[in-house]
Amino acid sequence: MKRFSFGMIVAGILFAACKQKPAPPPPPVPVNLFTVKARDVLYYDQYPSTTVALSQVDIRPEVQGYITGIFFKEGGLVKKGEKLYEIDRRLYQAAYDQAEANLKVAEENQKEAQQDADRYVYLNEHNAVAKQVLDHAVIALQSAKDQTQAAQQAVQTAATNLNYSIITSPFNGTIGISQVRLGNMVTVGTTILNTVSTDDPMGVDILVNEAQLMRFQELDKNTKTEIDSLFTIILPNHSIYTGLGKISIIDRAVDPQTGTVRVRIVFPNTKHVLRAGMSCILRVHNLEAGPQMIVPGRAVVEQMGEYFLFVARDTVLHSSSDTAKNNVNETSKLRAFQNKVQLGQTIGADVIVRSGIQEGDRVVVDGVQAIHEGSEINPNSKTTGNKTDSAGTQKKDSTGEKK
């Protein structure tokens, strides 16, 4: 009897469980929607860059000696030919004076040999001197001429060394901090006295991926429409440099290890704001051909290196029971569906979408973390369009420039 009662109780429980109603579906997820509209967009591509002097020379001594004079302001501007250093000139002046004296002696000896040769030539014409004496006189004259030429070369060498004892600037530019002081000994080929570099104009070097090389070659040839402020730079203090640049050099080859090529942009630097070696950001105005679709960056979902957007659609979903009973529910509900997209340039808080959505699509902006494929959604507020704060229309970046 007890076994029968227990079985009846279990059966009753199972029967009651079967009669329970299924759990109600979850409520629609509150989200914000953004309506996609295509528009023309102008933005900047940014590249890390370094300023470089177009000409830079290490100043080295050509003669050995002690530094006896420094004639410039360190870190200041110098002009071509301006006197920078003096090396002790006394030995080189003495060597020059000695070479000059030796030249005079050689010239006098040549003059004497010339007179003897002329006299013996005259006597030989009248058969008044032995032929051997004439030959010796001619040889002595040639030797005197060679000695004179050697003395002249010695004078030139001494004069060159004397001139090298005064070191001048090779061009207009900025000179650095002196590496030597008064009284220091300097040697040829090893001691670096200082460095002089040009500063107007100034070069800015960037590394460009080989996939973008054709674009820069076209810009170099001016085959594209001219864009105002095509090349600008952001200085280390985050301010925009006022000068505008132009392409100067595209390197001859792509680095096979990095797949990049060096491009040099030249900027005027009349106020000497730019210094060689500065780290800047080069901005390149980029005008996309035709209207582009832009969405807020927070709407993008990344999965395994791929990017998706949730697009809202009014959809009728049929359950399997409805299909079996031919009882189709025709009620349309707003649901979110994933679209795989290809992204382009990021513009502030927004991003260009190159493919995967169409103009007029309603994209889920806020609430993407709480939805999945086919989730029923409920917009929190009226569907937004291309607003300044969400789509990036004519908004300004941190530098104050319009996108």
Structural notes for this entry:
The protein has 403 residues and is an alpha+beta fold. It has 4 domains: 25-40 and 290-391, conserved putative lor/sdh protein from methanococcus maripaludis s2 fold (Beta Barrel), CATH 2.40.420.20; 45-54 and 201-287, Efflux pump adaptor protein, beta barrel domain (Elongation Factor Tu (Ef-tu), domain 3), CATH 2.40.30; 58-88 and 166-197, OB fold (Dihydrolipoamide Acetyltransferase, E2P), CATH 2.40.50.100; 90-164, Orthogonal Bundle (Helix Hairpins), CATH 1.10.287. The protein is built from 6 helices and 23 strands. The strands form 4 sheets. Strands 1, 2, 17, 18, 19, 20, 21, 22 and 23 form a 9-stranded mixed sheet that branches. It has a 6-stranded antiparallel sheet with strand order 13-16-3-12-15-14, with helices on one face. Strands 4-11-9-6 form a 4-stranded antiparallel sheet, with no helix packed on it. Mean pLDDT is 83; it is low at 320-325 and 386-403.
